[in-house]
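Before the break, one more example. Copy the sequence into your notebook; we will annotate it together after we see the structure.
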Amino acid sequence: PAPCPYPDRLNDILREVTAAIHTGFGYYNVDAFLVEDDVAVLAAISGGFTARTKPGYRQPLSQGIVGWAITHGETVLSNDVSQHPCYVPGCQQEVVTKSELTVPIRVDGKVIGALDVQSTELNAFRYTDAAALAIVADQLALASKNALTFASLEEEKGRLELLYDIAAEVISSLDLDETLNRAVRRITETLNGQIGYAFLVGPASDELTMRACIVAGVAGTPAHVDKRLLLGQGLTGWVAATGQSALVDDVTQDARWLYVDALDRVVRSALSVPLARGGEVLGAITVVHASPGAF
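Here is what the structure looks like once it is written out:
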């Protein structure tokens, strides 16, 4: 088959994605597809179907659950594929598939592919699985768009692996603040940051509220830290408003940086990434450091 017209860097990331999802979530089979003209091209696969299905397999967008999800830009959750009008086996071995969950990958409003997971059991998936996979898909889309923000592919892979873990925690935890604190701590530690915090869009859509903060590995917001921002205010507000990641080597040279208290005056570098679900930006996580160019 003809090669998929995407950089090897993205294909490498997708291989890491499918392997991490297969291992971390325990799904029987995980596929990542990319769109090429009017077909979906299998870019990566991990799990039970790897023996007979290899990257490069091509499926028309007019066929199958994957094709429907990509064409319509919507998640498909089928807990009995024999009853789904769009289902077609992608290969001979896939006759064992009983349940399937497909989530589109969208960049700047355009669907560029899909994550697809399958199970040999009926009723294998819950809506929490769909929500977690959507988090991975959205953050994957942002990672592919902003790949040049990061210094190397290994750093990008590490960031994505961390996001898979966070998505898995969404399934297991009903406590949003607890989940966010764990997420911020892990991101801050992975990036060797000194302070990390998460802001979410509040009930008033023009305001962000701090929901998690980690200072030197300890959860809790210092009393003098402003816990609210306007959407678009400061670097974190800009990221939440635009849905774009931001890497700043020296905040003193960036007009978006907002000095709100004495703590911020020692900050020199910052990295902020949006939190997104289903194409909607929910907030942002920011990690800072006292040294310039720390990230």
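Residues 147-153 have pLDDT under 50 and may be disordered. The radius of gyration is 20 Å. Try to locate both features in your own notes.
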